[in-house]
Structures are given as C-alpha cells and as structure tokens.
Amino acid sequence: MLTYDSNGFRLDGRPLRILSGAVHYFRSRPEQWPDRLAAVRAMGLNTVETYVPWNLHEPAPGRFTRLDELGAFLDEAHRQGLWTIVRPGPYICAEWDNGGLPGWLTARVGRRARTSDPGFLAAVDAFFDVLLPQVVERQWGRPGGTVLMVQVENEYGAHGSDADYLAHLARGLRERGITVPLFTSDGPEDHMLAAGTVPGVLATVNFGSDPEGAFAALRRHRPEDPPFCMEYWNGWFDRWGGPHHTRDAGDAADALRRILAAGGSVNLYMAHGGTNFGTTAGANHADPPFNSTDWTHSPYQPITTSYDYDAPLDERGLPTAKFDAFRQVIADFAAEHPELARYLDHREPELPAPAPVLDAREVLLDEYAELPFGPAVHSPVPPLFEELGLEHGLVRYTTTVPDRSPDLPLTVEGLHDRATLHLDGKPAATLERGVAPEPVTAGGGTRIRLLVESLGRVNYGPQVGETKGLTGVRHERQYLHGWQAEPLPLAPLPTPAWTPGTPAPELLARGTLHLDAPGDTFLTVPEGEHGYLWVNDFLLGRYDTRGPQHTLYCPWPLLRPGPNTLTLLELGPTTPSRIHLHPSPDLG
Ligand code: GLA
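That is the input. Now the predicted structure with alpha-D-galactopyranose docked in place:
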C-alpha cells in the first residue's frame, strides 16, 4: 500500500522516492514499448506515467475501442520492473487533440465540458465504466499490479472552479474500485492550487524551473502532503511555423537535482515524447489578456506531428545527452539515499540495442487516385465536421452564387482551420484560420468549392471544445445557401480507385518501397508543401514545409519485408513525384 505524509511516500511501510517518467502508450507502437520502458528503467527511474486519451478510445458515442492497450502497456511496465501512474482525465491537455475530450461530445455540450453538468458527467461515467477495469485489476497489491496512484482531471485549477465536478470524478474513481491514492496536479499558483485540489486527495505541482519556489507554494496549501512534481518539463513541444524547442541538458539536470534535494518525488514530462500519429495532434491558441475582448491577435497554433519534446529519449527512443545527465543525477541520489531510491525488482537494468535504420533512398510515386469522399450531405448551411460524424480529415463544400448577382466580395466565416478555395474549378485562394485572406470576388452563377481541413482541436484554454469546418460564406453581406458537403476521413482512409494516371493537384499518390527487413526511417516529400503521409494504410501524420519539423518519423513496426506502400495527399499546388527516406531526423 502507498501511504504518504509531509516527509514523503512509503510503500508497504518502507520509504520510497517516486522517480517517474512520462511515456504515452499512444505515442509509440506497442512493439516499441519494451525498449522504451527498458530505457526508462535504465535511466534510473522506478515508475512510468501515462495519460489516457478519451477521444482515442471513444471515437463515436458509445463506440469504445483499443481499451486493452492501456492494460497491455501497464503489463509491459511490470515486465520491465516499473511501477506506474495513470492519469485518465477525462481532460488531459497533453498537446493532444481537444485535450483528449471527444469532439462529438464537446460539439454537443460546449462550455458545459469540464463542469458538473449532468450531460457531461453521464458521458464521463460511461467512459470510466469501461476504462477503469483496465486500471483496477492492475493496482499495486494485486498479482502483476503496478499502479501506485491515479490522477483526478488535469490542471483543473488552470481552467475552472467547479468543486462539485472534481468531487464527482474522485467519487467515481473510488466507486469503480480505485483504492490506491488519488491525486490532482496543478501549476504552482495560489488560485490554481486552491481551485484544482480536492479535500482528502493528494495535491502535486507542475513546473519546469524553480523547484524550491514551487514546492513552497504547494506547502502553503498542503503542509501535510509530500513535495511531488507531477510534470517536470525538461523539454517542450513544437508548433507548425514556430521554432524547434530544446533545453540544455546541464540546465535540465540541475533542476532535477534540486527537485530531489528538496525531498521531491518527480515525474519527468516527458521521459519519451513520441509521435502525434494520424490526426491526433492538438493545437494552442494564444489568447488575449484575460480582461480583453480583442481576439484579432490570437493566432491558432497547431502542434507538429513529432512530439519529440527534446526528452531524454528522443522520438526514436534513443538516449540523448539529457538521458546521460539525468542518469548521473539519479545515480548520485541513489548512492546517497539507497533506502529511498528503491525499485520493483533487483535486476540490473540494461539499455536496449537501437532498432535498425534504413539507408537513404527514394521512392517514386507512380499511381494516382481521386479523393474517396463519402456520400454528399445537402444542407442550407455548410454542416460542421461534427454534424457529419467526422472527427478530423477534410470536407469538400460546394455551392453556387445566385444568378444575376454582380461581381462581389466573398467572405469565409469561422474557418477551422485551412481551406483551398476554387471558383469554377480554378484555384482562387488558400485560406487559413486567423490569417487575413487575399480579397476574392465572384459573380452570379460562380461554382464555389472549399476543401476544408482540420489541423487539430485546441487542447488548452478557453477554445477547447471548438468545432471544425466553417460557419458560413457571404457574398457581400448575403449568406450563400444550398450547400453540398462531402466528408473524407483520413484515418482510416476509405479505399480509393488507383490508376497509373497523370499527376494533378489534390490527388492521392502512391509508390512502393521494397525492403529486405524493416527499420526506422525518416520521410520527406521534397516537392511537397503541406499534406499527409500513410505507410501501409497507417496514417503517420501531417507534414508541412513551414517546419520546424522537416522529417516524419516512420517507426519500424509499420514496415515489413517485401513491398510496402507509401501514400501521400498533397494539398499544395504541385503533385509530388517522390518520397525520400533519411537515416536521421531533422526537427529544425
Ligand atoms: C501542462 C499539461 C500537460 C502538457 C504540458 C505542456 O502541464 O498538464 O498535459 O500540456 O502542460 O507540455
């Protein structure tokens, strides 16, 4: 049993310092978990922490999927000699689409999400009913169990102050059989710690620097709780069009040393970051100051496909300079406090051998296909993605300007997030959310076509729960009606009709990669601008020449000996003719 007081934790009566690192099971392939977790253990950590993304497990109302992946990951942690911490949300932030909340749900409940609204709570309860058995049977004390603690919500004090909501979640975890300690995690600000904590539930803090200050803030609120940094941000995430973030290994190691010296338990965020495969990346929104109503300077900032995070284990799972620096800090701590740096078993940890890497080469694209849109929906207004049952992907919206209209300006309203506009079949503009468009005009009878793409739902701040698509198109002041909307999901992609045909914009293109043996590789589309890449029907994610990321990591489990299909959808003006494979990443 895990117990605690102001001095620290005890496991089955003996003192324990929790030395944890975050690894998200949904950001690497299951075949890679053993190596990732063995490396975590080899760094000297004794625990691994993961979030659970609700929207991955309930992609449509009541349709639950892939729940056993959580259990399988926790079982692998046990094999690798690691205790575990589970953070099941329902909201997780994590630079993950919509902070883990299902888009179909937030479209319905809107601003009632993350409150004690009965409709929102009913959906959470239904999810917890099916998810939590994965955790309950793997709690510490049960055979093969490793789960030491379970989190309630995520940084709730940075969002709201509905104490009934947090109390309902804590009660729901208990009623479904969670017996290990519950905890909350919040920024070390007084109002966040005040609203984000729950009476009788352990409180922890999240920070990247100034451990002494953050632990002092925690102590002011919770003199009876041990110091625990639930997210020690040793790196940071990237967004498309922004800089690549790195943090000096020495500086990061110094903060870790100070956390341990202050008596703290710690969870490295991240130990291994991984990849935002498919359309799972979230987005940020630089909101205006809290007392301002001016939203014009609040750009939308979609998160990159890579979630390398400049973590001690890079996206491929290889140890970096930060790994060595952290391992030294932990080894020094363990030498000084052998009674605190305890482990689940006594095996000497070993760094796994790296997976093989493919040589540089080129794959020519030689087949093309029209986009396999789903059946058209007719509506007086352009239906939102969520109204079409689409979480992500593309929608082709078409209508015609009423006859006898003169040439007048067109305005696209509420675009989420990017669109190419065609007038009478010819490209007229590329539109982006939050970016002032070039003026476009159209006259009576003009065929309007907008191919709208979602780039990820905001995962932090007031815009969580946003919807995708567009809210309207106006011709001068007059709304256009009579819309036809055709959805195109991307993961999985409906089967297209391939032909050797001729390249043209906005087509799917594919080629074959012949391999003797699989290996890790990094893909680029040298002639591409912005689009999506699939490997054997698995959607790797978005690419974008804005960077900072220039290569897409393709993990070896997605490849096989013999022929492999590489498919791309380029949304820029040129159709690429080739895909390049590189032996190392370029994250900018
Ligand atoms: C917060 C959240 C995490 C993550 C980090 C930034 O601490 O709790 O989920 O979003 O910020 O990476």
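The mean pLDDT is 96.
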